Structures are given as structure tokens and as C-alpha cells.
Here is the input.
Amino acid sequence: MGISLGLTRLFGKLVAEKRLRLGSKCPTQVLVVFPHIERREEVARTANLLRERGLNVEMYHSPTKIAQQMRYASRKGIPYVWFPPFEEGGVHEVKNMASEKQVVADPATWSPT
Here is the structure.
């Protein structure tokens, strides 16, 4: 003898009726991209500054193609992608993954909207 509760269907119905709220896939709010090895210190400094301000930040683990890093953020449901300067004297930019809008930002003052 056995019993099946059909939990998948039950949770699907609860979500559809808005009786159950789903959290984000991932607690990370911001992914800091890692453009190339020479920028490692800048990437780490930016990630730490954002963390000190109370944001959940993930630094991409290796300098790979930006498209691959963006795909990673998209799959994990990370809402913002941070682009540190790719060269000396460059500017920081942040991209809202939902709206696809990318703007110049300062890691010392920026906050998610």
C-alpha cells in the first residue's frame, strides 16, 4: 500500500492562487563581472565595497567571456550585474537584468531600486 499527496500540484495551485509567495532563486543581489585577470583587484574591491554596504554580492570566479557571465546571472535569477572599469580610468556600470537598462553607477552610493 502506498499514498501519493501530489505535492507538486498542491504547491502549483497555492502559487497560482497567490497563497504562497516564492522567494528569489538565489540570495545574490549583484553579480560583479570579471573581465580579465589584470582587473582582479578592482573586481574584488568593488565586490567588497558593495558587501560593506549590506548588499548580497557575488564575484564571478574567473575571467571569462562577459556573455557567459551574463548567462550565469540570468540562470541564477540575479537581478543586477555590475561592470567594474574594464581599463584604468573607466567607469563603473550596473545593469538591471529585468529592464535591461544599463547605467553608470558609483559603488559607494548605488542602491537597487
User: Anything to note?
Assistant: The chain has a mean pLDDT of 91. Helices lie at 7-16, 40-52, 66-76.
